[in-house]
Each structure stands twice: as C-alpha cells, then as structure tokens.
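Example record

Each entry pairs one chain with its bound ligand, calcium ion.
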Amino acid sequence: MTSRTTPSRLRIALAATVATALGTAGLTALSGSASAAAADVTVQYRTSATGATADQAEPWLKVRNTGSGGLPLSSVKVRYYFKSDAAGTAYRFACSWAVKGCANITGTFGTPANPTPTADRYLEIGFTAGAGTLAPGADTGDMQLRFHRADWQTLRQSDDYSFGAAQTSYADWAKVTASVAGSTVWGTSPGGDDPTDPPTDPPEGGQSLFDDFDYSTSSDPRISANGWNVRSNAGGPGVPGATWSPENVTFASSGGNSLMNLRTSTAGTAESTRQTEVLTKAMKFRNGTYAARVRFSDAPVSGPDGDRLVQTFFTINDLKAPMADDYAEYDFEYLPNGGWGEPANILYTTSWETYDPDPWQAVNQHSESRQSFAGWHDLVLTIDDSSIKYYVDGQLFGTHDAAYLPERPMSINFNQWLIDLAGQTSTTPRSYDEQVDYVLHVKDQVLSPAQVGAKVDAYRAAGTTFEDEVPG
Ligand SMILES: [Ca+2]
Ligand SMILES: [Ca+2]
Ligand SMILES: [Ca+2]
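Structure tokens for the complex follow.
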C-alpha cells in the first residue's frame, strides 16, 4: 500500500464523533480502541483516456473493503478532483459498465471549498442500496466511469489533480479520496478540501414541463400555444380507416381540478371508429423523468363491452428506416379487454430499441402484469444513462436495460385506440374513456415517485397549471 495516505487526525475525529453519539458509557468503551476505525477502504484507479485532452475523462475505479467488517457501499463516497475548462462549464456523468451495475452508481459534481489550480471541481461517486455490501477483503470490481462536457467540447485533463496519464492498469491511487459514513478513510484531498462536505452544485438539468390540462375544449387555442397537437391526421396505429377525432378529446373539472378525457368510440366498422390522441408537437424529451396521472377503464361508458382497446401514456420518436437504431419508444399500454393474443386485461411497459414494420420484427424489452388496472394510477418513467425504470402507484413495475436507451429526443403522447374490431362484433355504438389529470417531465433528473408527487403539489400550491422550461 505504498501510495496509501490515511490521515490519523481524521481517524481520531471519527472516534470522537462516535463516542459523543454513544454518550459517556460509549466513550469509556471506545477510548483508544480501534473499533471506530473498522471501516476502511482502498481505491484503485486506471484510465483508458490518457491524452492531455479528450472527449471524455474516464476515471475507472475499484473500491476494496480493507476493514474488518461488512461495508455497505451506500456509505461510501469517492471524489475525483479536476480543473474545469472554464468557470461556467457544465459536466455530465455516465457509467459505461460496472460489476455492481451502473444503475447502482451515482455521479454528482461539486466545487471544493478551497479551489486549487488543479482542482476547482470534483466528481463524487456514490452507491445506492442496490450495490449491496462488500465483505472484508472484497472489492467492487470494475467501475468503468466517465464524464464529459455538457456541450461535448474537448476537455483538458492534463491539469486535473486526480488524473494519471500513466495509470493504464489498476493500482492504488491516493489522488482520489474516499469517505465512509462521512469520515475520510483514503487519499489526500487537494488544497485542504474536506472530502466530507456535502456536494455544493445543484443536480444538472431540472427544466420541467408540467401541464394540469386546464383547458376548455379541444379547440382551445392555448392547447396549441402550449405545444400540444390534438390529432386529426389519419394513419396508424389501430383499425385501418378509423378516424382520429379531436372532438372526442374533452375537458371537465372535478373538484376544481381539470381533467382531459380521450373518448374512443365505434359501432363495429372502420367508418364508425373514432380514436383519440394528444401529443407534444416537439420531439425534445430524452433523459429524465416522465409522469402522468391516468385513469384507465375496463368497461365502456355505454354500449356492449369487449373491444380490444389500448389505453396509453408514452414517449416516441420517428422510425427513419426499418431497424434504424436511433428509434426510441417507451410505453405504458393497458389492454382492458386483452388483445395481441392476451385473453383479458394486461398492463405492459415496453422499451424499444427499434423495429421493422414489414415483415414485423421488434427489438424491445417489456414488463407486464395481468390484472385489472381500472381507475386512477400514477405512472412514472425514468431514463438515465444506465437504465429505464417504470413505476405504477409508487411501486417499481419494471427495469429495462441500457441497450434500449434513447439515442434521440422524443415527443410525449397519450392515446386510446382499437387493435381490431374482432373483440366485439356488434354494430351497437359504444365508447370508452381514458382520462389524464396531469403530465410532468423533468429533464435529466431521475425523480422518485414521491418527488414527482411533491413537484406536482408545488405547482398546484403556486397556482401554476402549465409550465414548459424544456429547451427545444
Ligand atoms: Ca481540466
Ligand atoms: Ca433505439
Ligand atoms: Ca389536472
């Protein structure tokens, strides 16, 4: 452990903190003992981007538990210090691959309290509970991490404190720091920076779209002004020859809260079939959080039941060619009466890499639940650089792989359509409703379902029924 630096001052501070928490009895028991220093790690570093300048910095790291007990990785923070290219330059973190799973690794940028000529920013790596616990002697394995300028311009790393151009294979590296439960246990920070100060920089992104759908009718000019298209143009999906009907999109107030209703109706023929769709005109949404409160229904408002409907909330862009891999689509799709070979109600969430319409070939990953989802549901979709997650009513519904991440921005859509007319062959008119309370998108930030709820509550407390800060 030749490059190891363990400041004994910090060990003592840790022991004192623990003793204080335990009171006088604890002080006696811990005084002079090594118990409080049981948590201990070494950090190894290598880089695969060794140039003085690079498109991305690639600090690859391994954290080893050299203590005597199990080490929950969620208690560990590692800081990589660098000199920013300019004071206002923004950076983005990404994880290419990690034994512990990129979804379990977080990256946050911060500014040291005492900047130096080689360190006025740092990347702080953390772990979620899903990363688990390291047994004594075990390490995290490879963490292939990277970061780049938000504008993708070349960055200079030759002036970065933690950068080691010669470190092309893993070795102990004291120019990164590691802390466990708020106490520094590894490395030498630059300029007397305290590696346990909380990160100072706000999370990146955060520009939001919120709409409470407070409109009068589908021809309310504010709908278009706010960036929505109420679909009237013909075409798929659904029954060939069906009409997409703006008149079937209506708005009603319920307890002071406005709801959007998408009504889909048929009398058993293509000519009588009216489908509904509302979508953003702009394709400008990619990573971040998508949320909506949606009411699915199992039965028609009137008329005979049984039609094979799809009630949705989704994001999508355009397929530029069959199997083009820059296609992207993320769906919540509820089939109240089955369809696609399913005999009864089923909720799908599906993440698409791409597809070929003819002959049909799909490259996607899906999760499903065969039960009724009639009624109101809180739907949340999150996309970061490592995975796609779907939540229904606060519960994780599915996690999909990095292979299905979006390559290009997308629109946000709601629609209700008929797979075919074979589910109910009657010519008696019937109609089905899908209602939408609100939609929220937060750019580049992964929010928990609870954070989504809090953000919506804040909009409503402020009297804001619509806001769009998302850059086009
Ligand atoms: Ca630099
Ligand atoms: Ca794709
Ligand atoms: Ca509403």
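Residues 325-328, 353-354, 407 surround calcium ion (ligand 2) (CB under 6 Å).
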